[in-house]
Amino acid sequence: YGKASVEMYKENLDKLYQRFKECLPEECLVLWNATLPISKDAKGGFIIPEIEFMNSTLRLDVLEANFYARQIIFSNGYDFLDLHYYLRGQLQRRVGDGIHWDITAHRRITNLILTHLAEA
């Protein structure tokens, strides 16, 4: 959380994938799911009072984080499923808090993940 959250995310993601290389066998399938779109008016959940000031830019931070994650994941030879892309046209499926999604969206997410795994 906070102003340095995107930079911290990048550093932690780099560390995570270094640990994957150290700990996982080469044949292990790693699938990273992109963060879903959030509303510009997201509330509740992880939107604690200390970071409410970030609400106006959080959507863009998610895009940046997904973009960076995709680069790191592909450069390490792992799979990336861009759920943000697939659900950006389904924003009506978000529930009232602007963060979570309804059951139809979750069915779609499950279908996308299982399809990706079957084709991997």
> Could you name the CATH class?
Alpha Beta
The overall strand count is 2
What is the overall pLDDT average? 88
Give the overall shape.
flat
* Helical coverage, percent range: 40-55%
> Within the largest sheet, what's the order of strands?
1-2
Structure classification: mainly alpha
Name of the CATH superfamily: SGNH hydrolase
The CATH architecture is: 3-Layer(aba) Sandwich
- End-to-end Cα distance: 34 Å
Could you list the spans in which at least 5 consecutive residues all have pLDDT below 50?
A: none
Quote the beta fraction: 5-15%
Count of spatially separate domains? 1
The CATH topology assignment is Rossmann fold
Largest sheet descriptor: 2 strands, parallel
Rounded to the nearest angstrom, the radius of gyration is 16 Å
**Quaternary state, please?**
single chain
InterPro entries: SGNH_hydro_sf
Family: Belongs to the PC-esterase family.
Itemize the secondary structure elements and their pairings:
Blueprint: H1 5-23, E1 31-33, H2 58-75, E2 79-81, H3 83-87, H4 103-119
Parallel strand pairs: 1-2
What keyword list fits this structure?
Rossmann fold; about 50% helix; 4 helices; two-stranded parallel sheet; flat; mainly alpha; about 120 residues
Report what the structure shows.
- Belongs to the PC-esterase family.
- It contains four helices and two strands.
- The termini are far apart.
- It has a single domain, classed as 3-Layer(aba) Sandwich (Rossmann fold).
- A two-stranded parallel sheet has the order 1-2.
- It is flat, with a radius of gyration of 16 Å.
- Helix 1 packs parallel to helix 2.
- The chain has helices at 5-23, 58-75, 83-87, 103-119, and strands spanning 31-33, 79-81.
- Strand 1, helix 2 and strand 2 form a beta-alpha-beta unit.
- By secondary structure, the protein is mainly alpha-helical.
- The longest helix has 19 residues, at 5-23.
